[in-house]
Design brief:
This protein is an alpha/beta fold. The chain contains ten helices and ten strands. The strands form two sheets. Strands 1-9-7-6-2-4-5-10 form an eight-stranded mixed sheet, sandwiched between helices. A two-stranded parallel ribbon has the order 3-8. Strand 6 and strand 7 form a beta hairpin. The radius of gyration is 22 Å and the shape is elongated. It starts with a helix and ends with a strand.
Length: 258
Amino acid sequence: MSDLWDAIGSLASELHPDRVDAVAESIAVLDGPGSLPKVHQAFGPNIDETLIGQLKESWAEAPTISSAEIASALKASCRTANLVRNDESVQLVWTGPESLFVPTRQTQSAILEVIDSAKEDVFLVSYAISGADSILESLNKAAGRGVNVSILLEPSRDEGGNVDVGGIETMKSAVPAAKLYVWSASERSASNPGRKPSVHAKCTVADREYAFITSANLTDAAMGWNMELGVLIRGGSVPATLRDHLQSLIDTKVLGRG
């Protein structure tokens, strides 16, 4: 029986709450596990087929559990998962010399944790990019499973920015499915006359639930041997506020497509 509840919990954690409601309503009217393929479409195009298989197999081993009970358990598991996600956790991520007070952790692993957690949306911001192959690979995998990938970078000097080699062209070939953004030249000059500001923020946010805010650029030095500091946040209001802020900059044309 525990296998059935585990399967339901895994599905509830994987699916968006709105999708869970649709799936639960579809399952509630079934006459048993053998009918589960009839509602396969309700799970959406990006569902892990293994999870559906585990549900069908474990439900078949507990045939006395009704479809209405399965639907209720799925909804309850989803609500519980959301409560856990919304219970904010904050972790310092320090890369560099060790002390007795803050454990060291590779910045790269924190960024990958956020990207790999994304189910619908991931937005990455960096001043510079050079190397960071594992992060590029993770972004491509996210795009491959249907995640919307957005990236804001500082343009090269030739493009009106402040870095020697811009990351826009690199990203176009490295992560072709990504939506690329730059700080619009007109907005830069209008709000900062006589100055040449930069996109110096560095962060990654996924699904408005998970965020990493860091000093590190997407470079081999930052990922490997620099002294870098970041904050990894799961749940609470900060990830959602950060993602809403970035979207607002796009909607108001402060950020334009690169």
